[in-house]
């Protein structure tokens, strides 16, 4: 009976296959990434029209689709749709002999990939298997092979709905997406079992990939791949848009859709991977943009190279050392064009100028004695003499004055003017006009941001920052303009673009900053990662391990500690409230400490915060006076510190924490509280004189604490002079 | 080969009621007969083939005497054959002959194998060494293992041997499943390395298989197998001894994962070691109070969980052409009996005792057995001094010594312990009968384990946990990962 069944099944499949073969291959191109990584440039131009090596990104994708033998292309446009429409209308793709017809679909309300897919479903565009790509793909992949494999698998497994094309690399590959993810495949047939994002290697976070054992049933052996470049080329069956439709909460292609399908008990659909070692990647962040440009210039993507002159009217010719020049480039006699450089037509380069590892667009006027290194200059840029550009990106129609220095990682937006003698600091992003955040555009970005944000960062932050920017925008605007004038010079035009990510950067978490800047810093980290082990990781570890420096507080990533902090504070608070004994609470804290793998510094920090909250509570509710409150709480809970600090360095650290937290807690009289805390701890023999003196030496000079240290100065003096005087006298002293 | 071999003779908790874990009707696991030869002899033969420098049997102190006793005969035979061989070779060529390596017995008092290795064996180890279980039978020559080990990467501390179960009949329920994480290192020149081991039960219990992302950054292309089984064979380099040895000046106070301190300690040595051209072994505190399987799991974790990569544990998966079986559960024990029978099938001559009774060529009968007429024995092993009545049918059974089987009994897939008696006209299928048990007449039983009751059953159940590594194990917490597998891995005695 079963034989019969399979037979009929086979027949069905055969029929289906024939149908599929008859059908035209469609491609859906998501031109919008629904992310803000290329801000501020994407506020003017959509991502897919940004030039990479003087060719708009969308061209690479379309070129790939043409080679893949696609018959119909649908460009799903969200922001700046009209620009894309216009571009396509004028490009070679709308010529009668174009390999396929390009249809632009305006899906202006879409806020995520999921929305776009639902829109596709609503419009009923899909008739058969289709290719889903993003508009920033750069590849020389042989798509037909992938398609063949897809069809074969489809024959064997009729629940197969998606084949993801992935490219083999190494774990630290520079064009790997900066949201690294692990794919888990069945070893025997490359069926994807699970998908999960993981934090960067440089992250100190200890995370795990949690695989539900149910997913592993019937799988003998599976592989965990963290070395794949996910270029978002998916061969999908027509079911895919429908699945998006059914699951209206799916936003992301990978995180929601792939994971959702894989872990769903109901859908019972399968996703397969196709792993190639051809060049495939997406320009999805500044970092990858940089890397791909270099690779492209260095012909990694052959036959897709610059001198293939993909665009109408392009006239690049190739010279040795990867130098590409178009017609009508005017080079001064003494200028030097070094390796890995492309220069567009109509550009003029002045005397003594050195250009290396860079791309220069069309009609640029580059003066003399200019150094351009590792940078990207787009079209119609004017650069005056003696300017230095180092690893930066200068968008179209920018004017740079003379003696300007663009430091590592600067991004100069469209139409910005920078005055003479200005130095742009590392990692600055400048746009000509302030990026409107309160408009629909803003909604768009905010939404994208909160969703594009990694889980690790937590969306709470984004929410904060966006609400912040709304409330302050008016007041801040003026100040910003002033600041911007400073930045671009009196005759300049441009405002500093502060991405939400960068705010975070200032907060001390570097992860996000790395992800979204062009700066070399990221390169360094990546390099160090590749060299056997992550030195950065170690570096940080040591910082926190040493437990002595107060820097740890600022250095470490907030997220992990915050979790611990919250939990630990809750633990201590519970202990205080319920009058636990010291042993129990210490045991709890220790367990927590070990499981979260934090140092005693964090433990002390948490205990201090909890204790102060208690004190504050007493004071605020006026149950006790400040002095009594401190004494009461500390008499009982002070000894806990004895088990959290073990040498003088750590006690100094403890005193620092107390100092900081007292200020944080915003008592009415912080100095008074502080004094009492130290005094009680001293009386309890927790703080020794030596420690206090040492600590005092390091703190007394600090102006930050001047408001609270006056009283302490007295106390320390008193300690020093009078050996064994009663504290009563001291009390009366300060009562004065 | 200049290896020292250590054969760990477990107590065979999974082989109850035939091992002597409970009561004394059984024998020590190592002495349980497989096709009428004690298990250990198969291992010893294998070691003989490998020509290890010395072979040590590590056994629970209480069982040492019994083992010693039974080894007497083995040694005698071996000595005898060696004598014969050297005679025939003649004095001129005697130097070609290698004297049989000494077999020592090391009585152990430790609770688990890891502790035993650390406390009792480390001092005895002079060079590279091999850790072996006492219960494996294989047709893969030891040279295959040795070649693999000798070609190891310099940073390998040890090589763990894994195998695929080639016997379909072994009850899957009795095989504890493990998720073995390893990297084949396809992209690099290195040999495959073992990365981690999770027990399936723990994964099911915690609902998630948790793979550390940290590991994936170091080994981005790693595989996980649900089918690989631990052979408990470890080829270890002498470096491992250095790693596990306690350094007296260092207190145990650094257990709090303060690897950094250890790091700096190691760097102070670094200059001198640099001259030697060899990386200084970073001494991480390693808790040995666990079974060897867990110990090696910890060692393999150690290779990636530190900022600085540490020495790795290689993995060698036995080729599937060869057969490898460990008699570590009752069904595996039965299967290994059959496996040996199959090998011997051709060699053994038909033996007829009484006119019309038949013993298949695929069966084996020990000395002094009495088998009456019209009895059929197929695919079975009978120990010494057994009495089988008339018109019995014994198929696929393992019958140990001194068993009496009365007339018209039908046995299928039954293991019968020593001195047991099976009453008339009984019908047993898929049963285990403990030694000295008396099965009543005309009883019909299926899939039961018949044991004499003299220990509280609850008690007994708890001791079913791996005997070699139970006890203090469970309340011990790992210093690096507060482990999710709080239940014993049971790697040793699976």
Brief descriptors of the model:
heterodimer, A: alpha/beta, Spore Coat Polysaccharide Biosynthesis Protein SpsA, Chain A, UDP N-Acetylglucosamine Acyltransferase, domain 1, Serine Threonine Protein Phosphatase 5, Tetratricopeptide repeat, 3 domains, 10-stranded mixed β-sheet, 24 helices, 43% helix, B: Spore Coat Polysaccharide Biosynthesis Protein SpsA, Chain A, 11 helices, 32 strands, disordered C terminus, Nucleotide-diphossugar_trans (chain B), cytoplasm (chain B)
Total tally of structural domains of chain B: 2
Instruction: Give the end-to-end Cα distance of chain B, rounded to a whole number of Å.
Output: 29 Å
Based on CA atoms alone, the radius of gyration of chain B comes out at: 24 Å
DSSP helix count of chain B? Answer: 11
The CATH homologous superfamily of the largest domain in chain B is called Spore Coat Polysaccharide Biosynthesis Protein SpsA, Chain A
> For the record, what is the CATH homologous superfamily label of the largest domain in chain A?
Spore Coat Polysaccharide Biosynthesis Protein SpsA, Chain A
Rg of chain A computed from alpha carbons, rounded to a whole number of angstroms = 31 Å
Instruction: Give the number of helices of chain A.
Output: 24
**CATH-defined topology of the largest domain in chain A:** Spore Coat Polysaccharide Biosynthesis Protein SpsA, Chain A
Can you tell me the overall shape of chain A?
globular
**Strand runs of chain A, count:** 36
The appropriate CATH architecture of the largest domain in chain A is Alpha-Beta Complex
* Portion in strands of chain A: 15-25%
Report the biggest beta sheet of chain B as strand number plus sense, adding barrel if it closes: 10 strands, mixed
Overall pLDDT metric of chain B: 77
Percent helix range of chain A: 40-55%
The count of β-strands of chain B is: 32
Distance between the termini of chain A: 101 Å
Describe this protein's structure.
The complex is a heterodimer of chains A (736) and B (494). Chain A has three domains: 22-282, Alpha-Beta Complex (Spore Coat Polysaccharide Biosynthesis Protein SpsA, Chain A), CATH 3.90.550.10; 303-503, Hexapeptide repeat proteins (UDP N-Acetylglucosamine Acyltransferase, domain 1), CATH 2.160.10.10; 558-731, Serine Threonine Protein Phosphatase 5, Tetratricopeptide repeat, CATH 1.25.40. Chain A is 43% helix and 17% strand. Chain A contains 24 helices and 36 strands. In chain A, strand 9 (181-186) and strand 10 form a beta hairpin. In chain B, strand 2 and strand 3 (37-38) form a beta hairpin. Chain B starts with a strand and ends in a 31-residue tail after the last helix. Chain B folds into two domains: 4-245 and 288-331, Spore Coat Polysaccharide Biosynthesis Protein SpsA, Chain A, CATH 3.90.550; 356-450, UDP N-Acetylglucosamine Acyltransferase, domain 1 (3 Solenoid), CATH 2.160.10.10. Chain B is globular and about 70 Å long. The model of chain B is unreliable at 248-278 and 455-494 (pLDDT under 50). Classes of the chains: A alpha/beta (736), B alpha/beta (494). The A-B interface holds A 170-171, 182, 187, 198-199, 201, 206-213, 216, 219-227, 529, 532-534, 537-538, 541-542, 545-546, 594-595, 597 and B 179, 181, 187, 200, 203-204, 207-214, 216-217, 220-227, 256-258, 260, 307-309, 482. Chain A: Its main location: cytoplasm. Chain A: One of its GO terms (molecular function) is translation initiation factor binding. Chain A: It is found in: Cytoplasm, Cytosol.
């Amino acid at each position: 009976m079963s034989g019969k069944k399979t037979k009929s099944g086979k027949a069905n499949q055969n029929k289906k296959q024939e149908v599929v073969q008859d059908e035209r291959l469609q491609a859906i191109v998501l031109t919008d990434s629904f992310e803000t990584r290329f801000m501020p440039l994407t506020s003017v131009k959509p991502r897919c029209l940004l030039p990479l090596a003087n060719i708009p990104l969308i061209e690479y994708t379309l070129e790939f689709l043409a080679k893949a033998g696609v018959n119909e292309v649908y460009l799903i446009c969200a922001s700046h749709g009209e620009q894309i429409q216009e571009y396509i209308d004028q490009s070679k793709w709308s010529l009668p002999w174009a390999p396929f017809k390009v249809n632009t679909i305006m899906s202006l309300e879409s806020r995520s990939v999921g929305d776009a897919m639902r829109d596709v479903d609503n419009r009923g565009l899909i008739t058969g298997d289709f290719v889903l790509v993003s508009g920033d793909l750069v590849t020389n992949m042989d798509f037909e092979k992938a398609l063949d494999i897809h069809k074969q698998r489809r024959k064997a497994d009729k629940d197969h709905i998606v084949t993801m094309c992935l490219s083999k690399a190494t774990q630290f590959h520079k064009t790997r997406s900066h949201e690294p993810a692990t794919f888990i495949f069945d070893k025997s047939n490359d069926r994807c079992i699970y998908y999960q994002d993981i934090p960067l290697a440089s992250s100190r976070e200890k995370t795990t990939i949690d695989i539900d054992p149910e997913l592993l049933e019937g799988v003998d052996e599976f592989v965990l791949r963290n070395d794949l470049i996910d270029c978002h080329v998916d061969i999908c069956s027509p079911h895919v848009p429908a699945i998006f439709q059914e699951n209206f909460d799916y936003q992301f292609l990978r995180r929601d859709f792939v994971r959702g399908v894989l872990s769903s008990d109901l859908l019972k659909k399968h996703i397969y991977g196709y792993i190639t070692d051809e060049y495939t990647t997406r320009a999805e962040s500044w970092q990858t943009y940089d890397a791909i440009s270099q690779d492209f210039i260095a012909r990694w993507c052959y036959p897709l190279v610059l001198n293939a002159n993909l665009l109408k009217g392009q006239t690049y010719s190739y010279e040795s050392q990867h130098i590409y020049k178009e017609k009508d480039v005017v080079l001064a006699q003494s200028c030097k064009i070094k390796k890995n450089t492309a220069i567009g037509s109509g550009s003029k380069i002045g005397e003594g100028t050195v250009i290396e590892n860079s791309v220069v667009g069309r009609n640029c006027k580059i003066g003399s004695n200019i150094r351009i290194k590792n940078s990207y200059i787009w079209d119609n840029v004017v650069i005056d003499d003696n300017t230095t550009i180092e690893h930066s990106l200068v968008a179209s129609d920018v004017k740079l004055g003379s003696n300007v220095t663009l430091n590592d990682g600067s991004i100069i937006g469209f139409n910005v003017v920078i005055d003479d003698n200005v130095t742009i600091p590392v990692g600055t992003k400048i746009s000509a006009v302030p990026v409107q955040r309160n408009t629909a555009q803003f909604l768009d970005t905010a939404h994208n941001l909160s969703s594009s944000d990694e889980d690790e960062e937590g969306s709470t932050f984004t929410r904060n920052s966006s609400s912040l920017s709304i409330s302050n925008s008016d007041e801040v605007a003026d100040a910003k303009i002033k600041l911007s004038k400073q930045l671009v010079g009196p005759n300049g035009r441009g405002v500093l673009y502060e991405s939400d990510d960068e705010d975070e950067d200032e907060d001390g978490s570097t992860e996000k900053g790395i992800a979204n800047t062009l700066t070399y810093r990221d390169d360094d980290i990546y390099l160090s990662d590749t060299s056997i082990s992550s030195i950065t990781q170690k570096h940080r570890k040591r910082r926190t391990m040493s437990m002595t420096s107060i820097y740890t507080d600022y250095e470490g990533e907030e997220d992990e500690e915050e979790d611990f902090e919250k939990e630990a504070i809750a633990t201590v608070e519970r202990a205080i409230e319920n009058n636990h004994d010291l042993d129990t609470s210490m045991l709890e804290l220790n367990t927590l400490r070990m499981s979260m793998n934090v140092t005693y510094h964090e433990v002390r920090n948490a205990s201090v915060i909890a204790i102060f909250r208690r004190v504050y509570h007493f004071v605020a509710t006026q149950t006790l006076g400040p002095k009594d409150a401190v004494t009461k709480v500390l008499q009982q809970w002070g000894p806990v510190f004895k088990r959290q600090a073990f040498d003088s360095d750590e006690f100094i650290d403890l005193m620092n924490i107390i100092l900081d937290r007292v200020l944080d807690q915003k008592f009415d009289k912080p100095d008074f509280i502080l004094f009492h805390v130290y005094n009680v701890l001293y009386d309890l023999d927790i703080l020794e004189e030596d420690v206090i003196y040492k600590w005092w030496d390091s703190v007394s000079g600090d102006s930050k604490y001047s408001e609270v240290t006056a009283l302490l100065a007295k106390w320390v003096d008193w300690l020093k002079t009078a050996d064994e005087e009663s504290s009563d006298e001291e009390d009366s002293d300060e009562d004065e | 080969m200049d290896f020292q071999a250590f054969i760990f003779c477990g107590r065979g908790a999974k082989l109850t009621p035939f091992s002597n874990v409970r009561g004394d009707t059984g024998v020590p696991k190592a002495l349980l007969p497989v096709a009428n030869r004690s298990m250990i002899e198969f291992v010893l033969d294998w070691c003989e083939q490998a020509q290890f420098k010395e072979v040590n049997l590590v056994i629970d102190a209480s069982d040492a005497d019994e083992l010693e006793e039974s080894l007497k005969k083995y040694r005698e035979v071996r000595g005898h054959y060696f004598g014969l061989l050297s005679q025939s070779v003649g004095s001129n060529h005697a130097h070609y002959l290698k004297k049989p390596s000494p077999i020592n017995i090391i009585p152990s008092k430790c609770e688990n194998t890891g502790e035993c290795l650390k406390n009792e064996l480390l001092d005895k180890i002079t060079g590279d060494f091999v850790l072996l279980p006492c219960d494996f039978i294989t047709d893969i020559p030891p040279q295959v293992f040795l070649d693999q080990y000798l070609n190891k990467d310099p940073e390998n501390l040890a090589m763990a041997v894994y195998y695929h179960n080639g016997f379909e009949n072994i009850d899957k329920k009795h095989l504890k499943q493990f998720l073995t994480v390893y990297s084949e290192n396809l992209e690099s020149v290195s040999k495959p390395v073992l990365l981690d081991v999770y027990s399936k039960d723990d994964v099911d219990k915690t609902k998630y298989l948790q793979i550390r992302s940290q590991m994936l950054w170091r080994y981005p292309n790693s595989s996980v197998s649900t089918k690989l089984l631990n052979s408990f064979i470890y080829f270890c380099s002498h470096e491992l001894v250095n790693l596990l040895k306690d350094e007296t000046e260092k207190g145990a106070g650094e257990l709090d994962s303060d690897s950094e301190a250890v790091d700096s300690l190691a760097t102070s040595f670094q200059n001198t070691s640099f001259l030697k051209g060899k990386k200084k072994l970073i001494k991480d505190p390693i808790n040995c109070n666990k079974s060897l399987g867990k110990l090696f799991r910890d060692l393999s974790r150690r290779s990636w969980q530190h900022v600085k990569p540490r020495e790795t544990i290689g993995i060698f998966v036995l080729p599937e052409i060869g057969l490898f079986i460990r008699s570590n559960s009752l069904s595996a024990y039965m299967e290994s009996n059959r496996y040996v029978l199959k090998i011997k099938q051709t060699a053994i001559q038909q033996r007829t005792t009484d006119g019309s009774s038949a013993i298949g060529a695929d069966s084996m009968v020990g000395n002094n057995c009495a088998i009456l007429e019209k009895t059929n024995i197929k695919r079975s092993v009978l120990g010494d001094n057994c009495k089988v009545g008339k018109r019995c049918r014994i198929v696929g059974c393992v019958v140990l010594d001194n068993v009496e089987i009365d007339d018209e009994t039908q046995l299928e897939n039954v293991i019968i312990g020593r001195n047991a008696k099976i009453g008339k006209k009984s019908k047993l299928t898929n049963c285990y009968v403990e030694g000295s048990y008396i099965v009543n007449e005309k009883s019909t039983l299926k899939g039961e384990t018949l044991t004499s009751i003299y220990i509280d059953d609850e008690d007994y159940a708890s001791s079913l946990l791996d005997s070699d590594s139970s006890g203090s194990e469970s309340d011990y917490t790992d210093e690096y990962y507060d482990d999710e597998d709080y239940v014993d891995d049971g790697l040793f005695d699976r």
